[in-house]
Amino acid sequence: MNALDYLDIKIKDVSKEKVTLTMVIDEKHLQPFGLMHGGMNAILIETATSIGANESIDTTKQVAVGLDIQVNHLKSAVKDDTLTIVAIPDHIGKTTQVWQAEITNQTQQKISVGRCTLMVKSIS
């Protein structure tokens, strides 16, 4: 099982210019106090930006992987909230890419924002 399946992250839209994911928060996403674990924001941001970065390369020869991530937690999220994650590129280079992402809840409130730098690596 991969992380998207386990965490119930749904891919809604994928292109070189924009990636949109959704996730409904359930018990597995919560920390002991009933709020979504902050690490989920990082997972969602890195997932969306990685999917987008890999759209811009030949994945038979290269792979884009996370090199650095910054996440700002802006608002708490709780069980049954529906999150939407939108990632767009700031820079698409030959060896690095920089993407930004925003997570909103069902009422369009920002839950988190972040940036991810990805390394484009040759595979053999």
TrEMBL record:
<dbReference type="Pfam" id="PF03061">
    <property type="entry name" value="4HBT"/>
</dbReference>
<protein>
    <submittedName>
        <fullName>Esterase</fullName>
        <ecNumber>3.1.2.-</ecNumber>
    </submittedName>
</protein>
<dbReference type="InterPro" id="IPR003736">
    <property type="entry name" value="PAAI_dom"/>
</dbReference>
<dbReference type="InterPro" id="IPR006683">
    <property type="entry name" value="Thioestr_dom"/>
</dbReference>
<dbReference type="InterPro" id="IPR029069">
    <property type="entry name" value="HotDog_dom_sf"/>
</dbReference>
<feature type="domain" description="Thioesterase">
    <location>
        <begin position="33"/>
        <end position="110"/>
    </location>
</feature>
<dbReference type="GO" id="GO:0016787">
    <property type="term" value="F:hydrolase activity"/>
</dbReference>
<comment type="similarity">
    <text>Belongs to the thioesterase PaaI family.</text>
</comment>
<keyword id="KW-0378">Hydrolase</keyword>
